[in-house]
Amino acid sequence: MKIALETGRSIALARLEQWRTYQGLLCGKPTRAKNDEKILGVIEAAKTICAAGDPHLIRPGRKTIAGDAERGTMAGELLPATTCIALFNSTALARLDSEPYSSMAVVWFQEEFALPIEDEVLGLIRRIDWENHAVDWNW
After folding, report:
1. Residues in the chain where the model's pLDDT stays below 50
2. In the chain, what are the domain boundaries?
3. Hey, what long-range contacts does 71-74 have (CB within 8 A, 24 or more apart)?
4. Which residue from 9, 1, 5 is spatially nearest to 95, judged by alpha carbons?
5. Residue 58 confidence (pLDDT)
6. How far from 77 is each of 13, 22, 42, 62, 67, CA to CA, in Å?
7. DSSP characters for the chain?
8. What is the DSSP annotation of 77-115?
9. Are the C-beta atoms of residues 43 and 59 closer than 8 Å to each other?
């Protein structure tokens, strides 16, 4: 899959890892704090999986889950159902006098497994400042 960034640069999907955001959650409702921890954990996983510098996070939307005072349940918060980590490569120079290839890890959440990448997320990927955040390959 190739994507044209708003700058005109072409990037290509090299790797895609996905899983259900709440796999393993047996009971209870996720909270904002737990979701923040989850997002930080995914960013750390992306560093290991992709080895391409600091991953770019596309901030996920969050849905509030109402609590029920009568039943004594607390309110919660849901992230989109699928966690995605992708490695994108570009064969054009990231910066002048750099190596000929560059890469970037991107983390996002969407409702269904990709592909396709949800339109809103794809639009945000197209706006990435590749030149200032991508990692050049070192031979």
Report:
1. none
2. 2-65+73-136
3. 73/29, 74/29, 74/31
4. 9
5. 97
6. 30, 12, 17, 6, 10
7. -EEE-TTS-EEEEEEEEEEETTTT--SS---HHHHHHHHHHHHHHHHHHH-SSSPEE-PPP-EEE--BTTTTBPPEEE--SEEEEEEEEESS-SSTTS-S-EEEEEEEEESSPSSSPPHHHHHHHHT--HHHH-EE---
8. EE--SEEEEEEEEESS-SSTTS-S-EEEEEEEEESSPSS
9. no
Burial class (CB in 10 A: 0-12, 13-18, 19+), 139: exposed
* Residue 122: CB atoms within 10 Å: 15
Task: Retrieve residue 114's tokens.
Answer: 């990709």
pLDDT of 101 reads 86
Q: CA angle at residue 106 from 104 to 107, to 5 degrees? A: 155
**Euclidean distance between CA atoms 96 and 113, whole angstroms:** 37
